Amino acid sequence: MSPLVPDRTTAPDGPPVRLRRSLGVVDGVAIAASSTAATTSIAIGMGVIATTVGLQAPILLVLAFLPVLGIATAFARLNRSEPNCGSGYTWVGATLGPWPGFLAGWVTLVGSVIFLAYTSAVTGSVVLILAEKTGLHSVAGIALDPTSTAVSTAVGLVVLAAVTALAVTGVRSATRLQFGLLVFEYAVLLVFCTWAMVTGEQQFSLSWFNPFAISSGTAFAQGMVLAVFFFWGWDAAFSVTEETRSPGDSARGGFIALFAMLGLFIFASVAFQREMSLPELIENGPQALPYLGAKLAAEPWASLPLLALMFSAVASVQSSVIPTARGLLAMGRDRTMGPVWTRIHPKYGTPAAGTVIVMSIATAVAVLAMVIPKLSDMLLAAVNAIGLVVALYYGLTALACAVRFRGARRDGLREALLAVGVPAVSGLILLGLGGYLAQSYLTMTDHIELSPDNGWFMLSLPTAIVIGGLAMAAVAKYGRRSPYFTTGRGTDADALELPMDRTAV
C-alpha cells in the first residue's frame, strides 16, 4: 500500500528520521500494564466505586471485563489488518467515516491528558503523605495537606516534569524503568491484599457478586463506566505497534496485561472488602490503599503501600504520555493536527516535541482543576469524564471492526463471532451504558455546581470534550484541508519504512 499523505515523518532538521522497531511482547506487556495502572486504580478506585454501588465492586469488575475483552478482540483483529499507531482514529476513520474517526482519536487523547493531570495530583498527594510521616507538615508557611488539590498538584507537577524528560529519551528506556516499578508495586499489593484476605474481620459474602443488589439503573451504569475505567490502558500496547518488531506482539502484550489486571482487580476488591467496612471504604476514598497499609502493619512496613502507589502513579504517567504523543503523531502526519506533532527527535527516534507539548497541556489542565478544592471530588469528576469518553472510543472502534470484517460471516461461525458478533455486542453495550448514564445526569438536576453529586457538572466535561472534538475536526477539514476527510484513511504505517533499532535486545 502507498501513503495517502506525501509528507513523511521527519526530524526538525536533517534527513528523515523514523520511529524505531525495538519492542517485543514483554515491552508491550510493560507498557499496557503500566498504563492500566492497577495499583493506582485500586488505590483510588475502590473508594470511588464503593460510593456508587456499595460492596458490588467485584461483580461489576467481572461484568465490565466482558465487553472490554470483546473490544480487545476488535483491536487485535484491526491491528493485524492495519497496524498503525493511530489505532482507533485510523480504523474508525477508514470504516465508519472521518468524522467519527477523528472523534475516536480526539476523545482518547483528551482523556489521556486529563488522566495525566489528575494522576499528577495523586502522585503529589502520596509524596505529601510520606512527608507527613517524616514530620514535615509545612514549607514556607504552606500546609502540606495531602487532601488539598492545589498543594498535591503543585508537588505532582514536579514529578511530571521529570517523567517528561525520561519519555523523550525513548520508549525502550521507559519500559526498563517500568519493569522495576511494576515488580515492586505488584509484590507489595499482593502481599497486603493477601494479608487482608486472610485476617480481615468483614465476613465474605456471595452477595458481593450479585449485580441485582445495586440500588438503581443509574448506579449500575455509573459503576460499570467506573469499572471500565479500571481496565483502561491495556490498549497502549497498540499505540507502539510501529515500534514493535511484529504487529502480533502488540496484541499479545495487550491480552496478557488485560487478563492479569482482571485477576488482580477481583482479588484486590475482595481483599479490601474483607478488611474494610463500606463506611471505611467511602470515607477514605483515594487514600484507601494507604489506610489499608496503616491498618495492617506498623511503620516502616505501613509505608510500603504508599511507595507502591507512588511508583504506580509515576509509571502510569510515563506510559500514558507514550500512546498520547504517538496518537497525535498519527493525526499530525494526516494533517488533521498540526505539523509539530510529526517531529521526530534525530537522536532518540521519539516524537519528542509532541511529548513535551502533551505534558505542558496536562500541566495546564492540572492547574485549572485546582478550582475543585477537595482532591476526592476532583478525582471522581475526572474518572467519570474519562470513563464516558473511553466508552465512546471503545464502542466506535468495536463497531468499526464489526463493519470492516462483516464478510467474515461467510468464513464460519467462529470467525463470524470473533470478527463481527463479539465486537458489535461489546461496542453497543459500552455505547448504551454511556448514553444511559449521560441521560441520567442530564435529568437528575436543574442547575450546575462544582460537585460530584451534580449531574450537569458530571456531564459538562465529557460534553465539552466531544464538542471540542467536532470543532477541531471542522478545522482539520476546512482549514487544513486534510486528505483524511476525503478518504477517511490515515497514512499507511508500512509506508514509513521503519528501521530496526540497533540497541534492541
With helices defined by DSSP (H or I, 4 residues minimum), what is the helix count?
A: 17
Structural class: mainly alpha
Number of beta-strand segments: 2
* Amount of helix: 55-70%
Strand order of the largest sheet: 1-2
Q: What is the global morphology?
A: globular
Q: Low-confidence spans: pLDDT under 50, at least 5 residues?
A: 1-24, 493-505
Backbone CA Rg: 22 Å
Strand percentage lies at under 5%
Order of helices and strands: HHHHHEEHHHHHHHHHHHH
Q: State mean pLDDT (0 to 100 scale).
A: 79
Provide a concise account of the structure shown:
This protein has 505 residues and is an all-alpha fold. Helix content is 68%, strand content 1%. It has a two-stranded antiparallel sheet with strand order 1-2.
Compile the SSE list and pairings.
Layout lengths: L24 H12 L1 H16 L3 H25 L6 H9 L1 H36 L4 E2 L2 E2 L5 H20 L2 H29 L17 H15 L15 H29 L2 H7 L3 H9 L7 H30 L18 H17 L6 H30 L8 H31 L11 H25 L4 H4 L18
Antiparallel strand pairs: 1-2
Helix pairs in contact: 1-7, 1-9, 1-12, 2-8, 2-10, 2-12, 3-8, 3-9, 3-14, 3-15, 4-5, 4-14, 5-6, 5-12, 5-13, 5-14, 5-16, 6-12, 6-13, 7-9, 7-12, 8-14, 8-15, 11-12, 12-13, 14-15, 14-16, 15-16
